[in-house]
Amino acid sequence: MLVLHIPLELLQRNENPMEKPMQTIRRRVVSLAAGILFILLIVWLFTPYRIYAAGFFLGVCVSVYNTLYLSSKMRRITEAALAQGRAGIGAGAGMLQRYLMVTLALLIAMMFPQHFHPLATIAGVPVCYILLPVFELWETQKASRV
Q: What pLDDT score does 135 carry?
């Protein structure tokens, strides 16, 4: 079980104690995803696997968007909870919009199969969702060593 120690002065100043680790993890995930997108661009330009690279590229783009959107929603929900003492009514994590983005990517891949491979698009969607817990574990291990 993970126990989080939050300094009392942060709570008294109504600051979000999770903001700094969340920013660090978000920055690392987006940086690594940008590197993956760059590699996919190189693969698309110089190899005969253009359809697969384009499909995976589309999936990773949606994954990055969904990760940034989720991070933004979580930050707003946390700030509202700290300000009001509880989460506001209607404060959701935007799950429907994230599902619709994945559906849109799959529709694009299925409408243009000569440009995007649908299975490669599906394979690219969970990339950032896989990177998030990896970097969260890394950040937790780093914090426990200090």
A: 86
Token match 């998030």: residue? 132
Residue 12 lies in a domain: no
21: Cα within 13 Å, side-chain hemisphere: 17
Residue 3 lies in a domain: no
Question: Residue 42 sits in which domain range?
Answer: 18-137
Find the Cα–Cα–Cα–Cα dihedral 124, 129, 34, 104, rounded to 10°.
Answer: 50
Those residues with Cβ within 8 angstroms of residue 113's Cβ, 6 or more apart along the chain or in another chain = 51
pTM of the model: 0.78
Q: What is the distance between the alpha carbons of residues 146 and 143, in angstroms, rounded to a whole number?
A: 5
Q: Which of 27, 96, 115 is nearest to 64 (CA)?
A: 27
The answer to whether position 1 is within a domain reads no
Q: Please indicate, yes or no, if residue 57 is contained in any of the structural domains.
A: yes
